[in-house]
From TrEMBL:
Family matches, as Pfam families: DM4_12
InterPro entries: DM4_12 (IPR006631)
Residue segments, region Disordered: 1-23
Protein name: Uncharacterized protein
Lineage: Eukaryota, Metazoa, Ecdysozoa, Arthropoda, Hexapoda
Domain of life, source organism: Eukaryota
């Protein structure tokens, strides 16, 4: 038969105090920032960016699609740029005063193209040497048509006046020394010597008449060949600006 005895509470607490206690948790000290020289900092920076110089894998490269966009205008449209300058000046008067306004306007109109060559040149002009004469004849033809319209509105035969000018320019500019105005007229009323292509005839069949008048003008009397009463070249050089001799005596 055993007897169970309860130990006093004070003895239990005394035995717990005798056990070893764990050390307190102390945070580790923060590292002290070290001073770096400029060379060490440059090496560290270049090392951190070293992987950027390596080529990316093919799977991570994605090509972006950026299709070209175009605007479509109705046939016969034109692009017009207008510049206007308005100045208001006050006039001092006694007992009244007034203002005068002066305005100057400039306008430039460009006929939007409506030809198939635009679609053929979507990706840029090629380096084909035959393309330059085609562009020159196309631009000259547009200028000649505008001159014809002006002459027709004045009561003259615009087509024959332009053909006569092309004929005279081939004869005149080859034997005379020109000034600045003459050089400008020579550039306008001159055509390339290369042959005409079939696609040019499909775009504008009138280019044949301009080319023949300029190409076969060596031994031709231009004034008798074309039904035009005056010469555009002589008009530009100022021949018609002064009256003929004994004009007022009549």
């Amino acid at each position: 038969m055993t007897h169970k005895t309860d130990a006093p509470l004070g003895s239990v607490n005394a035995s717990n105090d005798l056990l070893p206690q764990p050390p307190p948790l102390v945070p580790p000290p923060l590292p002290v920032p070290a001073l770096m020289t400029m060379m060490e900092r440059a090496k560290t920076t270049s090392a951190s960016f070293a992987p950027l110089d390596q080529p990316l894998p093919a799977k991570s490269v994605r090509r972006l699609s950026r299709p070209k966009r175009y605007l479509s205008f109705p046939e016969g449209s034109s692009f017009t740029v207008c510049v206007a300058v308005c100045i208001t000046v006050g006039i001092i008067g006694n007992p009244y005063y007034a203002y005068n306004s002066y305005g100057l306007n400039w306008g430039v109109a460009y006929d939007l193209p409506n030809n198939t060559w635009v679609l053929q040149s979507l990706h840029g002009f090629t380096r084909n040497p035959s393309l330059a004469p085609v562009l020159r004849r196309r631009t000259r033809s547009a200028i000649y048509q505008d001159i014809e319209a002006i002459a027709d509105n004045m009561g003259y035969n615009g087509r024959d006046c332009v053909l006569r000018t092309l004929c005279e320019s081939r004869q005149y500019f080859q034997r005379n020394k020109m000034n600045m105005i003459g050089e400008m007229l020579r550039i306008i009323f001159s055509l390339p010597k290369q042959r005409i292509f079939t696609r040019e005839l499909q775009e504008n069949s009138d280019i044949v008449h301009y080319d023949n008048a300029y190409r076969h003008a060596h031994n031709v009397d231009c004034a008798q060949q074309y039904a035009c009463q005056f010469s555009l070249l002589e008009l530009a050089f100022g021949k018609y600006s002064t009256p003929p001799k004994n004009y007022y005596a009549q």
